[in-house]
Design goal:
Keywords: Membrane, NAD, Oxidoreductase, Transmembrane, Transmembrane helix. Helix 5 (128-141) packs parallel to helix 6. This protein folds into two domains: 1-59, no CATH class; 69-348, Rossmann fold (3-Layer(aba) Sandwich), CATH 3.40.50. The longest helix is centred in the first third of the chain and has 33 residues, at 26-58. The protein is built from eleven helices and eight strands. It has 368 residues and is of the alpha/beta class. The radius of gyration is 24 Å and the shape is globular. The chain has an eight-stranded parallel sheet with strand order 7-6-5-4-1-2-3-8, with helices on both faces. Bound molecules: nicotinamide-adenine-dinucleotide (NAD). Nicotinamide-adenine-dinucleotide (NAD) binds at residues 74, 76-80, 98-100, 103, 123-126, 151-154, 174, 201, 203, 249, 251-252, 255-258, 356-357, 361. The site of nicotinamide-adenine-dinucleotide (NAD) has 31 residues, from helix 3.
């Protein structure tokens, strides 16, 4: 240890900051500065709250998505296909990524059916190199992506000790690691053009733990952290043209992911309503959207009341997230064969296809 450091530690030498403060102010400076900082923060904070309240009352400006190029991962089924239909209606060119070739072809057909511009790419999001390769292909074949919706997700749906390691790995590969690779692939051009939006479809399960969803909840909590840290990182770097939005829905009906969930008190959400809400959040540059919105008021209580209350509440609300064992609900070999039957559509093949979700995407009522 140097003599200087030793003297500083013994209080014989002023520190690097106190050295610059006048002698008479040395004791007072940090307290005065801290008080000024707090007052400034409160004033600025009140300003932001007033602005947000005003925007909520009069309505937020909705940005025009016409001409935007949007990549929707997991766009071959469920929520992804509903978002794709809405974006196409708003004039976006929609690029769908999915491992499920049949679902992808169906959705491309649907989007084109309503007059939209749509491309489908078979991508396995567990494969980083596949993501980078197809991202490059999209850039060359479709153009610069300015809206990225990380929507694909998987769930294992078993008690932790019954979950094979490869399913835990897959949950993290799809639900969070793929977000890193897609963002690394598309963010540079968004920054270069000062125009972009990254949307993370996480879940309420990223804020609240649920039995049988240990891998799912932890991957979604990571997705929430990913969005917040990335947003702060962009703001710290002064990048104003690239936004991020975090979407956290409660359980959704008829997408195929949590078909059988046993949910009390709070009804499962309608998938079309969730898709509408997501598109609204994108158009109004909302940093986060909890669906339904009242969870925003309830969530802070999690840290205020004793744990047994939280445990009772969650176990009462979701007695069983996966009442039917997921492996029992796998499609039959015959159904799986039909699901991967190729069709002559202009789906661009990036990898060999195969259904990845444990349940096949439901053919629910897709509305625009
Ligand atoms: N369904 C719900 O109750 C619910 C609730 C909250 C959040 N979410 C989240 O919303 C998102 C969409 O969920 P959903 O209900 O539409 O699920 P879904 O199972 O219907 O759709 C997921 C899509 O991701 C695709 N996919 C899975 N693994 C893939 C891989 N390795 N590579 C490429 N594509 C892959 C599937 O083929 C499927 O098309 C997910 O991130 C999910 O976690 C769903």
């Amino acid at each position: 240890m140097s003599v200087e450091t030793q003297e500083y530690m013994n209080g014989m030498r002023p520190g690097p900051l106190t050295r610059e403060i006048p002698e008479c102010m040395r004791d007072k400076y940090t307290v005065v500065q801290a008080i000024i900082d707090v007052i400034m923060f409160v004033i600025v904070g009140i300003g932001y709250v007033i602005k947000a309240t005003y925007k909520t009352i009069v309505g937020r400006h909705k940005k025009d998505l016409k001409g935007a190029i949007a990549v929707v991962t997991g766009g071959g089924g469920g929520l992804g296909s509903l978002i794709a239909l809405r974006l196409a209606r708003l004039g976006c060119t929609v690029v769908l990524w999915d491992i499920n070739k049949q679902g992808l072809e169906d959705t491309v057909k649907l989007v084109k059916g309503i007059g939209g511009k749509c491309y489908g790419y078979v991508v396995d999001l567990t494969q980083r190199e596949d993501i980078y390769r197809v991202a490059k292909k999209v850039d060359e074949e479709v153009g610069k992506v300015n809206l990225l919706i990380n929507n694909a997700g998987v769930v294992s749906g078993r008690y932790l000790l019954d979950t094979p390691d490869h399913l835990i790995q897959r949950t993290f590969d799809v639900n969070i690691l793929a977000h890193f690779w897609t963002v690394k692939a598309f963010l540079p051009s968004m920054i270069e053009n000062n125009d972009g939006h990254i949307v993370t479809i996480a879940s309420m399960a990223g804020h609240v733990g649920v039995a049988k969803l240990v891998d799912y909840c932890s991957s979604k909590a990571a997705a929430c952290g990913f969005d917040e840290a990335l947003r702060l990182e962009l703001e710290t770097q002064g990048i104003k043209g690239v936004r991020t939005s975090l979407i956290c829905p409660y359980f959704i009906r008829s997408t195929g992911m949590f078909e059988e969930v046993n949910s009390r008190f709070v009804p499962q959400l309608n998938s079309n309503d969730v898709a509408d809400r997501i598109v609204l959040a994108i158009r109004t540059d909302e940093p986060f959207a909890l669906i339904p919105g009242f969870f925003r008021v309830l969530l802070p209580f999690k840290w205020l009341v004793p744990w047994p209350c939280i445990s009772e509440l969650i176990r009462g609300l979701v007695p069983d997230a996966v009442p039917v064992p997921m492996h029992a609900a796998r499609p039959t070999p015959a159904a799986a064969k039909t699901a991967s039957k190729p069709e002559a559509l202009d789906v661009k093949h990036g990898a060999s296809a195969g259904p990845m979700t444990v349940l096949p995407p439901a053919r629910h009522d897709r509305q625009v």
